[in-house]
Amino acid sequence: MSLDPQAVLAILAMALATYLTRVGGLWLLKLANVKGRTRAALDAVPPAVLMAVIAPTVFATGPAETIASAITLAAAFRLPLLAAVAIGVASVVVLRMLLG
Amino acid sequence: MSARKEFAAGAAAISPVLAAAVPIALLFGTLSVSKGLSVAETALMSMTVFAGALQFVAIDLWGDPAPLGLLAFTALVVNIRHVLMGASLGRSLGGFSPVQKYAGMFLLTDEGWAFAEQRARRGTLTPAFYFGSGLALWLTWNTGTLAGALLGASMGDPAAFGFDFAFTAVFIAILTGFWSNWRTGAVLLASGAVSALVKLAVPGAWYIMAGAAAGIVVAAVLHAQDDTPDETDRLMPS
Q: Taking Cα atoms as reference points, which of B2, B40, B1, B9 lies closest to residue B132?
């Protein structure tokens, strides 16, 4: 177990920068008048961010990931979350074996 | 519901994510030690930074001496999506005291935030529910990181078991809950297409901001005054 001072400082700088991004939204909200078009834009943040996070895996990694994503989506409309995730993970394993 | 039940409900809601987080946390701990960070430094990073995507990028950039400025700047870029997420979630924190808000934001993650937004859309997001899910993930992430760091390089490749796909599958399942009408489809199409293209064309984590921005712009452009959402009451400021 050892702690290098420079490493600790770098980690704490990352922690501070990350915390600023986490509370930054609360400060911005106070400036925003949450109505109409702004409201529609803010409502779109959760799906837009989630989609942006997964899009490279879903569309630009390989056919196994793309097909497994479609299977997961179909399962998620009918089954509980954990079951849909299990089906998605199992299907990606099988598809990677089949598609190389 | 009592606070204790809400806390348990939060932890239960996020439990599929916990199962998915364990192998990722083990992998992070293992990789971090192999990149030259000590077990204590690895544990400190998971405890104070608590942001999976950034932590993997950070150990990739790691060196001796640690590039402090580069790491701090990268933290801002990779996590800038938190600003959007916080601004969105902030509207649902009416029942939180200021201390709960600022402590709660420390626990903000993609996963915890998605479940909090989902909870708020179905009813009321209580501090107990939020901290139940957030602390459960924090404990899991840190336990897994420490175990991975101590185990060292004996772990196999998580891709062989499909675990690397688990987070994508969780997000797809959560996304289905955000569907309301064709505008949602347009937002997802814009966000997904721009994100995938930027990921292919630009190195780094810009694809998340670019994709999210495209989806948000489409939502604002398509906005119609007659399109009255059904959760107006929860948006009243406290």
A: B9
ipTM of the complex: 0.80
Tens digits of per-residue pLDDT, B13-36? Answer: 999 899 888 878 887 888 788 888
Interchain proximity A48–B66, CB inside 8 Å: no
DSSP state letters, chain A: ----HHHHHHHHHHHHHHHHHHHHHHHHHHHS--SHHHHHHHHTHHHHHHHHHHHHHHHHS-HHHHHHHHHHHHHHTTS-HHHHHHHHHHHHHHHHHHH-
- Report DSSP letters for B197-213, one per residue: HHHHHSSSSHHHHHHHH
CB pairs under 8 A between A and B: 298
The answer to whether B215 and A42 have CB atoms below 8 angstroms apart is no
Name the residue type at position B188: L
CA distance A66 to chain B (A): 11
pLDDT digits (tens, 9 = 90+) for B98-132: 999 999 999 999 889 999 999 999 899 999 999 99
Distance in angstroms (rounded) separating the CA atoms of residues A20 and B198 = 25
Distance CA B232, CA B101 (A): 22
**A53 to chain B: closest CA residue:** B208
Judge if pTM exceeds 0.90. no
The total number of residues shown for chain A amounts to 100
3-state secondary structure B99-137: HHHHHHHHCCCHHHHHHHHHHHHHCCCCHHHHHHHHHHH
Please report, in angstroms and rounded to a whole number, the separation of the first and last CA atoms in chain B. Answer: 20
How far apart (Å, rounded) are the C-alpha atoms in residues B30 and B33? 6
